[in-house]
Amino acid sequence: MDRLIYTAAAGARALMQRQDGHANNLANANTPGFRASETAFRAVPVRGEGMPTRVVSLEASAGFNEKSGPIEQTGRNLDVAVLGRGYLAVQAPDGTEAYTRAGALQVNDQGALVTSQGLPVNGEGGALNIPAGATVSIGRDGTVTAQPATGPAQQVGRLKLVNPEPGALRKGDDGLLRMDGGGEAPADPEVRVAAGALEGSNVNVVEAMVGMIAAARQFDTQMKLLQSAEQDDQRASQLLAPVR
Fold first, then answer.
1. Which of 39, 81, 143, 151 sits CB 3.0–4.6 Å from 21 for a disulfide?
2. Are residues 56 and 114 in the same domain?
3. 132 DSSP assignment
4. CA–CA separation, 132 vs 232, rounded Å?
5. Are residues 114 and 33 in the same domain?
6. Contact (CB, 8 A) for 122 and 155
7. Are residue 25 and residue 61 in the same domain, yes or no?
8. Residues 82-117 pLDDT 10s
């Protein structure tokens, strides 16, 4: 059977992966702090008898766009937006440390500072716990201060803000970022945040739509190649069939 079938099928599979990435980006165009996924592919020659005249597409990496999104003022004291490069450290459901730009924070029933998804926010000295009934304010350096109804204000701790090297993070299926190869990034005292604001998604809706259209057209091309290979195989079978 001609290798065209395998190469066309591999191309169609890669285009489906790219289409899934564009669709996920569009679905999160209004998600605060979302980082657009980027899918990269590389051409790999098909090894076998004869000359390597065919190539297949394989996914090389699952990266993301590090460009900052627009910052919108909300006036809510628990909303924070990271200014420039940097990320908030949170505790992922599996217990590992992960990173995000989504700064819509809140205080849960146990008094812990968590994200809008309920993930605990990591502080430089551990978990951040807010006294009951206290008003929270967050400084530009990430310092969390609680003001009780009566009495003086008290410093709860400081948000763990990190700034790994470009390319050191990998995006997971849950949308959280993690260090490539595991481990935890050190806190960076130079990272600053803006209180009362949220960073929007960095998805470019027009580019994502154009990408979806281009991927759909390329997928149709791969399907036509498969049909052409099937027709060629049928004709070859007819020509090589024994004469009765």
1. 39
2. no
3. T
4. 74
5. no
6. no
7. yes
8. 999 999 999 999 889 999 999 999 999 999 999 999
